[in-house]
Design goal:
The chain is of the alpha/beta class. It has 16 helices and 8 strands. An 8-stranded parallel β-barrel has the order 1-2-3-4-5-6-7-8, surrounded by 6 helices. The longest helix is centred in the last third of the chain and has 28 residues.
Length: about 375
């Protein structure tokens, strides 16, 4: 796999497991990325239980809920530091999911993460209206940002134009899974096409940035995607994909940036605008550039601008029942529940996948919070 760097691709491991990382990491793997799910897996092993019990002295004057959020932050920072010191390179660290829609809180905790380890920490901020505003402000302060939970080229056009982050993402596995698991086709090529189109837009929109912005093909699901997406700025690989790639690929990569993969989707499914996963319209591009030049300071103002521009399916108005149903669906939304609203332009597949991803992380965060609460009470 060492040859991937010859076509311009960095290799990152998608894990927070120290022993697992030590076992399979090679010198070509230049960074580690964690998230709420991966950190929760480590915390649930009990390796930090004594530390959590001791941490109550640090947070005892805070309200109960804030005690848990603060200890969760300390745990993420501590674990991230252990990874950074042991393995070197960059480490992506995640914010508590309660901050996903809170601008000032995201900024405050993002600054604190960065101050702890400015040379190695990348702060992961999720794709929400608040996240776009907060990450823009953090970048203006020099904080390194890995903007996450994007599922389309048009979402990444927004991110690149508004934030100019160090890194942004596409999760190709979930894109293909949405199509295949909902009976819209076999899903082949869909995630890959979304990644490659995103890469083209990121290159175009950020070519004059003072600091480079790089695209991550995130959490790849199979070793074949290592070959199919060669030339993309970065891969993040779960450990199984990394192991399979080392065993089954020749390591002789060629760039795939000019490929246009055929998408395995039934013809009738075109009514659901799956092309929005890999295409960016003129009005979406104009909106992104306008928001980049003049970004609102509040989430609702940004969302209203998106709707006035005729792009409301990027930030749909949803009620609590809608959000609960998305959470209940799991990581892959049930298309039969949402298909009519997608077809009429109210929302879109990339939006659903983003919201489902946030809900999934929130579930794992709740498990971590519950363990912290049980120990400190």
């Amino acid at each position: 796999m060492a040859k991937a760097e010859d076509v311009g691709t960095e290799l990152w491991l998608d894990t927070g497991d120290m022993e697992e990382t030590e076992r399979i990491r090679t010198v070509e793997m230049t960074a580690l990325t964690t998230n709420n799910t991966l950190v929760n897996k480590e915390i649930q092993k009990g390796i930090y239980d004594d530390f959590i019990a001791d941490a109550i002295e640090i947070v005892k004057n805070l309200p109960p809920k804030e005690q848990i959020i603060e200890i969760a932050f300390i745990l993420n920072a501590r674990h991230g530091l252990r990874l950074a010191k042991k393995f070197g390179g960059m480490v992506s660290v995640e914010l508590h999911t309660d901050m996903a829609h809170k601008i000032e809180t995201t900024i405050a905790y993002g600054q604190r993460y960065f101050e702890i380890c400015p040379d190695q920490f990348l702060i992961k901020v999720p794709y929400t209206a608040a996240g776009l505003i907060a990450a823009r402000k953090l970048r203006e302060q020099g904080v390194k940002i890995n903007f996450t939970l994007e599922f389309s080229a048009r979402q990444n056009v927004m991110v690149a134009a508004i934030i100019k982050p160090n890194y942004l993402n596409v999760f190709p596995g979930r894109i293909g899974a949405y199509i295949s698991e909902n009976g819209l086709g076999d899903g082949s090529g869909a995630g890959e096409r979304s990644v490659l189109e995103s890469q083209k837009w990121v290159n175009y929109l950020t070519q004059n940035n003072q600091e480079p912005t790089k695209l991550i093909a995130a959490s790849l699901r199979s070793y074949q995607q290592l070959d199919d997406l060669a030339g993309v700025d970065v891969y993040t690989m779960p450990t199984k994909v990394a192991i399979d790639g080392k065993e089954k690929l020749t390591g002789k990569f060629r760039s795939r940036l000019s490929e246009v993969y055929t998408v395995g989707i039934d013809g009738a499914a075109s009514v659901y605008f799956t092309e929005k996963l890999w295409e960016d319209s003129d009005k979406e591009l104009e909106l992104a550039k306008n928001l980049g030049a003049d970004c609102p300071q509040e989430s609702n103002a940004l969302i209203d601008r998106v709707h006035r521009a005729g792009c409301g399916d990027m930030f749909p108005y949803l009620n609590e029942t809608d959000l609960k149903q998305i959470a209940d669906d799991g990581k892959i939304p049930k298309h039969e529940r949402w298909g009519k609203r997608i077809a009429n332009g109210e929302l879109a597949i990339d939006t659903l996948l983003n919201l489902a991803g946030l809900a999934s992380f929130a579930g794992d965060q709740a498990q971590l919070d519950e363990r912290i609460g049980r120990i400190i009470r």
